[in-house]
Amino acid sequence: MFARVFLVVALLVVTWPALSETIQLKDQAAVSGKILAEKRDQVVVDLGFTVLSIPKSYIAKISKETAPDPKKNGKTRPSTTESAPDQLPAEPTAVAAPRALFQGGRPGSEEQSVRELVKQLGEAVVQVRAPSGLGSGFILNEEGYLITNFHVIEGETQLSVEVYHVRNGQLDRRSYKQIRIVAMNKFQDLSLLKIEDKDAPKFASVPLGDSDVLAVGERVFAIGSPLGLERTVTEGIVSTKTRQLMGELYLQTTAQINPGNSGGPLFNLRGEVVGVTNMKLAFGEGLGFAIPVEAVRYFLRHRDAYAYDTDNPSNPYRYLEPPSRLRAPDSEQEGAR
Asked: Which of these is catalytic: 32, 205, 211, 262?
């Protein structure tokens, strides 16, 4: 019974006649009514039979429309806000949608050669340096958000990211020093960083694919900095999609993975990231492993749960120092007075 009532209310919300404002939602539905209040994070709308609060994160656009006048046989009449005859009506009010943190692959995109894809994607693959070592990473959007492994930056805060910008057909290597740790998940070995240098340009980025549609035997390739040899490309196939190690499932690949590749992308031949390379078996060849991109998507969508804040002593990834047991005896303290 409850589900049936909910369905009727949902249909009324979508099809209710326009009164003064129409709110276009991101899922292609629309809500029409009178806006009672517009708060920082939500809009309150009077639908006539109820009042609805809509989070702004679900709103694509708000349009002020005219209502039908029954005395004019369904023709529209001017809105209640009058304007001078020589003035144009106000433009619809739009609520800017939040910028997406990452982009998905394009449906129906065709496979390309590794040579062509490296030219397109290489600029978005970076080196992540810490005092204890280095790893790889890849940029998610033009604002400089990037993914790497947790173990690449574990215990470090003085980080730098080296990006190879393409300038007039040439590679321009540039190091960025203002790196913020946004979120991290130790158990899935993932970290989200952001480049915050003031003079940083817009960055090239790579799309996230779907490792669920990968097939065993499908060709993949990795770009990274094994042993510090930046922009190294290795190619192989997917050996298995469900290799269980330490309680987690990994993609196993014959693409060569070595120290320094950690945090770098594993691509399919459509140029989509299908995994994050993070380890290999030390006593074997062609036995590399990558975190499936579905785990990356989950981490990014729930990044607030893994948020890192160096100013918060209760942060799950930063602990207060334990009290010291080595305290001077009272006799020594008295003797020092």
From this structure: 262
Chain centroid to CA 75: how far?
Answer: 46
**Domains of the chain, first to last:** 2-72 (2.30.30.100), 114-195 (2.40.10.10), 211-299 (2.40.10.10)
pTM higher than 0.70, yes or no? Answer: no
Write the pLDDT tens digit of every residue in 261-315.
Answer: 999 999 999 999 999 999 988 888 889 999 999 999 999 999 988 988 766 655 5
Q: Is 194 a residue whose pLDDT tops 60?
A: yes
**Among 63, 79, 109, 151, which one carries the catalytic annotation?**
151
Set 189, 191, 205, 211: catalytic member = 189
Angstrom distances, CA of residue 126 to CA of 76, 261, 282, 283: 57, 10, 24, 27
Spatial distance between the Cα atoms of 47 and 272, rounded to a whole number of angstroms: 43
What is the rounded distance in angstroms from the CA atom of residue 38 to the CA atom of residue 65?
A: 17
Residue 262 bears catalytic tag: yes
* Radius of gyration of the chain measured on its C-alpha atoms: 27
309 in catalytic set: no
Report d(CA 37, CA 182) in Å as an integer. Answer: 33
165 flagged as catalytic: no
